[in-house]
């Protein structure tokens, strides 16, 4: 999540250009359509961090995680689904309110004002 | 006790009671007294909280359960030997010898050897997969064995057995069975009817219960494969926990020649002295008043009695109350006083609700004056209350059934605690009275349950008294005139009211500023919308500008309510419910063009459902061009001001309610508040607009208007109360201004006006004094603050429609204009509806 890193080549992921940095509001999220998948992207400007997760909330299969509010829980960055306020760690995707729920997280890289997501 | 200095004390057993004894002894020791303490423990770790042992399966570690660290023993000069049971007592020379050969001399010996699980002699108990449930080691073994097991059973349907059965369910076993020899569950604590109720509750939670079953043999090879019962039936299981009762650990006492009971237990007198005056026995190994007390509270009391005696005090152990409250697999079970006493020695009142799984029984003295005991299954909220009433022999109300039937909410209970006498025992585990707790709060400044736990240990035993301790903290603070703070969340250590004042005084206008100045961390879904609402209530600037968009609740952020499936609803404002045919046609056209489901709402306007996020700006553009404005159906702000048709058409109307409703709605539209605001204006006393169910409602009179406030529909309906009578329009609006601003400034987050009033000290007469009589002298300020908000009102949808940057945010994807392909609708009565949740 460091703007300086080179595109890593040794990992399993393929990097996709998702959008421009300005497409995602500071301290908010947006949803990109990549490879037929909906990916929620968050610009955690306050912490200088970027995160990406599934856009679908496992609770009621709603495509809305990107519209959730972000914040922290005892220092751990999280997002709250707007539907019923289940909250998920942006780092691990684990749901804080219910162990049964989990979303996927993806690596993000920002270079020259473009946001890349590794799938 | 002749002379008490320089004494050597040896404690055998480092369980809960052994530990408590050390703690009490240190606390009571006189300055002149030299005491040396040596402890022998058979288990490999220092004493831990056995009562909450099952929480080990819920993620607590052995460390979390520890009562005091090893350092604590060292720091207090206690010599402790773990994994080293005492094997011999030489009473003549006053020596003990441990398994590892350590020999220590004592002046007084304390036996706190507790008890072990009672394992009946059933052939096959030695097989792999058969366990007991007593120590952390037992739980570790159960946990690892359960990984490969599917069906588990517990022998014993008592308190511990049911707890073990819950553990089996928690460990993920497919089937959990309880096998009980008696004809019902928990026969020692509750009566027949209570047992049946408990049984059906537990069965509905997935537990299989077998009663009157005598296990004859445990079948299998090396590992258990099933249980054979005396009635020839067979149950296939691959693990078994035996929890058929406890057996006092009196084996060492027996070897030493102390007097023990044939059915187990070291016999002690009411000083806890054994047949050897230098040796005491406390906790679950001791037989006092002809019984083994298998609970922690009497054990701690025994520790207290002996500690007092050895430090020069005088105290005796009296027959102890066996009242208990437990939560068994999500079902409350409690019994107190004498639960089983029968008529004619008492009058019994029973309440049973099979649908809800609730059974309650109280036994009242024949003269109806005092409570003798009772049983609660399924709902034990009143336990603490009843227990205190029983113990303190409080005189009962004439209708004693009120005790279990009356609508005794939390608030009443709170008031009730404060009416107890100072010596009412609140925490029986640690013997803390109400008076002591009040002292902690008032004199020592301990205002939270955590600091109270640390300072006087109340609530650290079984934990059953915690709700009452909390009530006492709040009650005492209130009595002292202390304002009880209600902080926002982990990021802001302020109440909403405090934060509002701080933000106002410092002129802060963005969330970032507020968080940097008064908060910590990165915010969350609680404080973000709360601050958003404060900023809107203070400055009424666009909620989507600066850094404010992402802190809005999702509905505010998109200026629309998110619906099932991810589409949004569109609610244009229709003030007073009055709409021209032309405007109605536009609504119809917009709905047609964007395929929206159309419905008249309960608030006298029209809701269009099923709009794609990306279509919202265009939909609103069309509506705004036709003269509509945002209806704020998504905001914590003014919703509708309903009207009845009034004197313009109605033959009974005494005033023009429609005109006034429109005026009121236009005046307060866009006003953001702690929760939503609703209003209505009726043209006469018949009240067709239902004004008395609104946050503020107006009813026409012959002479003017009556103003009602703090009504609520919704889940807890409440009628509004009269604030002013026969006032003219201007006065009416001025009073509403003051009322609304006072609410905005002082209410808790998400409290409707009714809730706010219900919590207000002084209630309606105080509210009236502030709003009508201006006793606080703030009326002018309230009015001008409100006027300021009215002056800067703008339709927020118009702002978005006119601003390309803001419009851009209304798109499902950031990298394609496509709509969300996952959205699906179904047909219904010639319109559409959202697809059902999967
Ligand atoms: C559309 C409507 C139902 C209808 O089809 O008639 C409705 C729909 C919703 N109501 Fe309502 N309420 C509607 C009239 C009412 C009324 C009747 C009234 O206003 O006269 C009440 C009872 C009166 C009251 O509030 O005191 C009402 C009491 C509630 C409550 C409970 C409030 C309470 O204090 O207990 C909620 C939940 C909340 O706000 O927390 C709620 C919440 C909701 C939400 C916002 C739930 C949600 O988050 O999705 C629904 C949103 C639908 C949408 O997107 O527009 N709605 N709701 C009505 C819209 C009225 C309007 O024109 O603005
Ligand atoms: C699962 C479970 C749930 C419970 N729930 C509740 C509840 O909700 N409410 C309630 O009031 N009570 C409850 N209890 C009962 C409560 O835990 C006991 O009353 C309490 O632990 C008794 O304390 P004790 O010190 O007498 O015995 P223990 O805590 O058993 O301690 C005795 C210690 O002495 C050691 N010892 C024995 N012999 C020797 C020797 N010769 N030398 C050295 N050490 C020796 C033992 O190994 C043990 O460590 C529960 C018990 C269990 C097992
Ligand atoms: S009553 Fe419940 S279901 Fe009906 S609109 Fe209101 S919130 Fe929705
Ligand atoms: S759909 Fe996400 S919390 Fe319910």
Topology:
The complex is a heterodimer of chains A (about 120) and B (about 850).
Chain A: E1 15-20, E2 28-34, E3 37-44, E4 49-54, E5 56-57, E6 62-63, E7 69-73, E8 76-80, E9 87-89, E10 105-106, E11 108-111, E12 114-118
Antiparallel strand pairs in A: 1-12, 2-3, 3-4, 4-10, 5-6, 7-8, 8-9, 11-12
Chain B: E1 7-12, H1 16-28, E2 35-40, H2 62-65, H3 70-75, E3 78-81, E4 86-90, E5 95-98, E6 103-105, E7 108-111, E8 115-117, E9 130-132, H4 136-146, E10 151-155, H5 159-170, E11 175-179, H6 192-204, E12 207-210, E13 215-220, E14 224-229, E15 234-236, E16 239-242, E17 246-248, H7 251-255, E18 266-267, E19 279-281, E20 286-288, E21 291-292, H8 296-310, E22 324-328, E23 331-337, E24 347-353, E25 358-364, E26 371-377, H9 383-391, H10 402-405, H11 410-418, E27 425-427, E28 432-433, H12 434-442, H13 449-456, H14 466-479, H15 496-505, H16 511-518, H17 527-539, H18 554-557, E29 561-562, E30 568-570, H19 581-594, E31 597-600, E32 606-611, H20 616-625, E33 638-643, H21 657-668, E34 677-682, E35 696-700, E36 705-709, E37 721-727, H22 729-746, H23 753-759, H24 763-771, H25 779-791, H26 796-802, H27 804-808, E38 825-828, E39 831-834
Parallel strand pairs in B: 1-2, 1-7, 2-3, 7-19, 9-16, 10-11, 10-16, 11-12, 18-20, 33-34, 34-35
Antiparallel strand pairs in B: 4-5, 5-6, 8-17, 13-14, 14-15, 20-21, 22-23, 23-26, 24-25, 25-26, 27-28, 29-30, 30-32, 31-32, 35-36, 36-37, 38-39
Helix pairs in contact in B: 1-8, 11-14, 12-14, 15-17, 20-26, 22-25
The complex binds siroheme, flavin-adenine dinucleotide, iron/sulfur cluster and FE2/S2 (inorganic) cluster (FES).
Siroheme binds near residues 571, 678 and 712 of chain B.
GO molecular function, one term (chain B): nitrite reductase [NAD(P)H] activity
Organism (chain B): Dyadobacter linearis
Protein name (chain B): Nitrite reductase [NAD(P)H]
